[in-house]
Design brief:
It is a single chain. The protein is α/β, with parallel strands linked by helices and 392 residues long. The chain contains 14 helices and 12 strands. A 7-stranded mixed β-sheet has the order 1-7-6-5-4-2-3, with helices on both faces. Strands 8-9-12-11-10 form a 5-stranded mixed β-sheet. The radius of gyration is 21 Å and the shape is globular.
């Protein structure tokens, strides 16, 4: 289905109809599969014959999700995992070994930093954190044992844009893999593999699902890197995606293009409104011409995305008061939902990051993050205005 547009791939790709001739994808909630003979069982387990073996690593519903997302991202293979963090863990456990080195953006999700510094470090993996936007820092951080570069663009929550073409060229120069977390843009707005990335990672929990119903992740890339190495780790270690969640994500993918267009439209209108509010110090949104990487975002992304962050003119108490005065918005750290959510990153998503590192990444006490949903934009503005207007 490579000749079809992404809107069609999102609805039709990756699924083989069963003998029941269903129009909606079936869920296969089974742990195991029957074989016609002992010889066939042996052939399946040895890999001589393709087919289902055990749902930890081969399930028709999970495979349909993997195939569809791989086609949408322009990759050769995809591995579904139990969560976005499981996708990151599986990738680095599969591709790296003790004494390898990773150069990582300092603007990655807080839990990702903890994974590198507290857990993967136990196994001898070294990591250097650098500025997402300073290519010189990426160059200076490279060591003889550097195996991979890792970043998420736009970043969470400050929406910093990494120059994928420049960082990809640097990675290739040093024979490193470029691994990109694309969960905020999704393949609808950005396809990192086409811009030089080797692997794309998703938290399917976010926009791919779109309604906050399930936890899952995905790794997309080449057959060699993803199907051989990452799938091998997933098969052995078991951070598997459940069939039911895979079915949820399949249904989410069907509406992803129209949802992302609506998220982006609402987010841009909200960012413009916030920019003019007297209680707001600064707004972070790639679709604003005032964004430091606006020109780069226009090249890499087809729209600004659904995430808007802003700094209150005040301290933590002021930020919390704006959050607490909302009546409709969901106070939750999740994002990518049709329901608009609001959170205070310094005390939620990045609370486990050391204070010094948090400030270095720009996560201040007066920062508020909004994942802009699909409610009427005027209602979202009114809800935020309840608290913002009190600060004037």
């Amino acid at each position: 289905m490579n000749d079809f547009e992404i809107e069609t791939l999102a609805i039709r790709a990756g699924y083989d109809q069963t003998a029941e001739q269903e129009n909606s994808e079936a869920i296969f909630p089974t742990s195991s599969f029957r074989y016609h003979s002992a010889a066939q069982a042996a052939a399946r387990f040895s890999g001589e014959e393709k087919g289902n073996v055990y749902s930890r690593f081969t399930n028709p519903t999970v495979r349909a999700f993997e195939n569809r997302l791989a086609l949408m991202e322009g990759g050769e293979a995809c591995v579904g995992t139990a969560s976005g963090m499981a996708a990151i863990l599986s990738t680095f456990m599969a591709l790296c070994q003790s004494d390898d080195h990773v150069v990582c953006s300092q603007s990655v999700f807080g839990t990702t930093k903890v994974l590198f510094t507290k857990y993967l470090a136990k196994f001898g993996l070294q990591v250097t954190f650098v500025s997402q936007t300073d290519i010189g820092q990426w160059q200076d951080a490279v060591q003889p044992n550097t195996k991979a570069f890792f970043l998420e663009t736009p970043s969470n929550p400050l929406t910093e844009i990494a120059d994928l073409a420049a960082i990809s060229a640097l990675a290739k120069q040093h024979d490193c893999w470029l691994i990109v977390d694309n969960c905020f843009c999704t393949p609808v707005l950005q396809r990192p593999l086409e811009q030089g990335a080797d692997i794309v990672i998703h938290s399917a929990t976010k926009f791919l699902d779109g309604q906050g119903r399930g936890i899952g992740g995905a790794v997309v890339g080449s057959l060699e890197l993803v199907d051989e190495h990452v799938r091998g780790f997933m098969r052995t270690a078991g951070p598997s995606m459940s069939p039911f969640n895979a079915w949820i994500f399949l249904k989410g993918l069907e509406t992803l293009p129209v949802r992302m267009a609506a998220h982006c439209q609402n987010a841009l209108l909200l960012a413009q409104w916030l920019s003019e509010h007297p209680a707001v110090e600064q707004v972070y949104y790639p679709g604003l011409v005032t964004h430091p990487q606006y020109a780069l975002a226009c090249v890499q992304q087809s729209a600004g995305g659904g995430l808007v962050s802003f700094k209150i003119k005040g301290d933590r108490a002021a930020a919390w008061s704006v959050i607490d005065d909302t009546q409709m918005l969901s106070i939750t750290a999740n994002l990518g939902d049709v329901k608009t959510s609001i959170t205070h990153p310094a005390t939620t998503t990045h609370v486990r990051v050391e204070p010094e590192a948090r400030l270095k990444a720009g996560i201040t006490e007066n920062l508020v993050r909004v994942s802009v949903g699909l409610e009427a934009i005027e209602d979202i503005k009114k809800d935020l205005a309840r608290g913002l207007d009190k600060l004037i």
